[in-house]
Amino acid sequence: MKHITIAVVLVIGLTSGCGRSVESSESVTASSSTNSPATLVGKWITEADGSVMIDPQTSGLAVWREQLLSISDGSAHETQRRRIHVVNPTTAQLQPKPAVMAMSSRVRRSCFVNYLSGQPDLEALVVDPENDNVFYTVTEDATRSGALSPRCQKKYENSGSTDYPTVLVRVEQSESGRATMTHARALKFDTEFGVGNFPNDGIEGMAITPEKLLYLGLEKDKQGKARIFSVQLNDEFWATSEFAEVSEPNLQLPTFLEGNHPINALTRYAPNGQPGVLIAAARNDNEIWIIDEQGNKPAKRVEFNFAVEIMGNSECGDTEIMDNASIEGIAVIDHTLWLVNDPWKRNYLKNIQCPDNAEHYNAMAPVLFSTPIPKEWLL
Questions:
Q1: pLDDT band at residue 3 under the 50/70/90 scheme
Q2: How, if at all, do strands 203-208 and 213-218 pair?
Q3: Which pLDDT belongs to residue 347?
Q4: 3-state helix vs strand vs coil in the chain, percent to 5
Q5: Nearest by Cα to 138 from 250, 26, 230
């Protein structure tokens, strides 16, 4: 397997092995002098008062006016749900907590009002390229919401995926900063795509082009494989409540002989007019995938270790390696890739080593990472 050496931040002596077998992809060694993965050292995301952010279950990251936006999924602490959080990338500090997203009369009359007003499992976030006061998010697991009404169930029964359909949501922010869900539209997958009925393994990442082609990263299909679909947004897209049918672009994702390798976040990078690449996060593997947007070249895989700062004067030192990071949000500012984790409740406490960080892990506090994007990542 061909290896390309890339200069990225590396903490010397902190490495891990990799035993996964692949059929088709190019491995990129993110290291200055060895074949060991680079180690990214992250910062705890803190509230405006300096305390760590409590259990946001971060499920998306986007760039907005040189700041980062994040969104929480349905398993987050109730104080974090249905809000768009603004993070300073330099300090990893949040702006004061925003209000819960309001709903337009159109959404309140839709089939999805009960779900969206309760505990929606929102995944992924992108900013409209033409109007940065407009955002898009998408729903995943809706099993906890109960069944749709008979009329709505009949209307959306042939989703090509889950019984309760995946819903794309348009959000608009006013000049005062209040966000409102303005539209909601269900997505339909062709049955030939073989998406399967996996309510909690659906769309986990989104990326958008300047032409408003929206990419949708599926965690896994019937074969257990990650997929990327797309839907074209335009002025007429939100004028109907009928299904929006998605397409599947001809992209070359990594293929594996065994194991679970889902996509959990997605973004797009196209510097200086060069051909674009999609960057996907595969949290199970501590990897990102660099995917040719034109579909002509195999994907590249870049593996990382993740570490986190130890705040204050600690006998443990300045940083510690994480056992489980679980990246679920990625975004690009200029030529820097930003990554945020979704504390995986089943595994997050395995990270506890230094007592000074134990309280943060118990609070399910997220961590923000970054790395320069080297030119070798472009395909």
A1: very low
A2: antiparallel
A3: 94
A4: 10, 40, 50
A5: 230
Residue 33 sits in which domain range?
Answer: 3-377
pLDDT at residue 11 above 60? no
Look at residue 237 and give its three-state secondary structure.
helix
> At CA 281, angle to CA 30 and CA 68, rounded to 5?
100
Q: Work out how many domains the chain is built from and give that number.
A: 1
What is the spatial distance between Cα 228 and Cα 42, in angstroms, rounded to a whole number? 28
| The one-letter amino acid at 71 | I
CA 213 – CA 188 distance, rounded (Å):
16
CATH (domain of 215) = 2.115.10
Q: How many CB atoms lie within 10 A of CB 316?
A: 12
Burial of 40 (0-12, 13-18, 19+ CB in 10 A): buried
* Residue pLDDT, tens place only, 65-91: 999 999 999 889 999 999 999 999 999
CB-based contacts of 124, cutoff 8 Å, min separation 6: 59, 60, 71, 137, 138, 203, 204, 205, 206, 217, 265, 266
**207: nearest Cα among 231, 190, 187, 224:** 231
Which pLDDT band, with edges at 50, 70 and 90, does 36 fall under?
A: confident
Phi/psi for 251 (5° steps) reads -110, 155
* pTM of the predicted structure, to 2 decimals: 0.90
